[in-house]
Amino acid sequence: MPTFPSAAKSALGNAQLRRNLAHATDTIRGKRAAAVGELDDWEDLREAGRAIKERTLRHLDHYLMQVEERVTAAGGHVHWARDAQEARRIVVDLVRATGEREVVKVKSMATQEIGLNEALADAGISAYETDLAELIVQLGQDHPSHILVPAIHRNRAEIRDIFVRAMGDYGTAAPAGLSDDPHALAEAARRHLREKFLRAKVAVSGANFLVAETGTAVVVESEGNGRMCLTLPDTLISVVGIEKVVPTWRDLEVFLQLLPRSSTGERMNPYTSTWTGTAADDGPKTFHLVLLDAGRTDTLADPIGRQALNCIRCSACLNVCPVYERAGGHAYGSVYPGPIGAILTPQLRGTTSAVDRSLPYASTLCGACYEVCPVKINIPEVLLHLRARVVDDSRRRRIPTPEKLAMSAARWVLSHPSRLAAVQRASSAAGRLAGRRGHISRLPGPLSAWTEARDAPAPPTETFRAWWRRNR
């Protein structure tokens, strides 16, 4: 992936993408505002969610051990994965042990984070996404661009073309004469997926929450595909980040109010599925829980950055972010796009790559994300914290950056009055050249990056120094 500025510049040139994003995010914002406005105690709920998350993270070791104990007692098997590579190996080995060569999946950002589908494919195992948006992304050989609506960058006509072109390669083909009517598209997806649900013996899921007191995993979704995946196969493998733990069912109740209103603008999720281990005559016969670290412990060690682990993946911050709305999710180079991705990804992956070093700068710091976050993550604060880390890393490794060069030049100019006076005279001359326009449409050299997308205000035609000498 290119760095965020390069990827965003490319996305800004796609007018259709910008129209799709603007329409979708505007619709979701309106629904969220209406749903949140119904509750007089919304701010109290936000504060409760924040407090629960922070208390849980302070005692995360205790609650994780409790999860392992309860899941094991209920007939499940718990596996610990310190990184993505170990998590992939565990899941591939578990699927191979069943003798099956295909799995159905419930939408899971953790499995996308670790690249599970690619690892399964390398092992000769086909993974079929069952969430409608994820199915669109998979059939289109694309990547998700939104936490809640992975195919938000596609419109109905594009989805219809993808279904007609690719459905037959994965199973039941799209019906002849398929239109771009949403009901027709949903019916085509339903027919295509029903075959997978009835045949699959292994399912892979994530979880929105893990309730420590009973070892219960929770998935919330809107289509029913999760319910099918979680109940029909003989083997269920759930890959869950260690930060998804909540201590009690009473704590869960708070998040079951916060999440649907913040994400889909609904009072409650249409489908809320919970499972605790295995049962003799109900659901899968074998259950495996893979607890994923992959940088989360390192993030937890940062007193400021650990706020990112409070995230409940509602996507509210994406829907209000002016940067995301114009650049789209692919520009972030991560499964976690938008403001939350800009603070979560560099902590999970580190800031060794140019892509991850650029993410903390993918923001205007307007603060809209903080205002809508249901668990009150101060994203602007963490962005500034990570920017400082990037600068410190660059200084230690002696990496020249545009900012460093600019500051060095500024120090040289400001350290001597005659140099400052010369620069001021030059800027005044530029102001006179700009004339009555009041702006400069093109700046020279590296400054041209600014005027590629906007005008620069013209400098005053007379500096304060010159005015003072003339009048005083």
TrEMBL record:
Residues 401-470 form the Lactate utilization protein B C-terminal domain. The keyword Transmembrane does not apply. Residues 65-291 form the LUD domain. It holds the Pfam family Fer4_8. It comes from the Bacteria. InterPro entries: 4Fe4S_Fe-S-bd, FTHF_cligase-like_sf, Helical_ferredxn, LUD_dom, LutB/LldF, LutB_C, NagB/RpiA_transferase-like. Keywords: 4Fe-4S, Electron transport, Iron, Iron-sulfur, Metal-binding, Repeat, Transport. The keyword rRNA processing does not apply. Transmembrane segments: none annotated. Residues 308-377 form the 4Fe-4S ferredoxin-type domain. This is LutB/LldF family L-lactate oxidation iron-sulfur protein. It comes from Streptomyces xantholiticus.
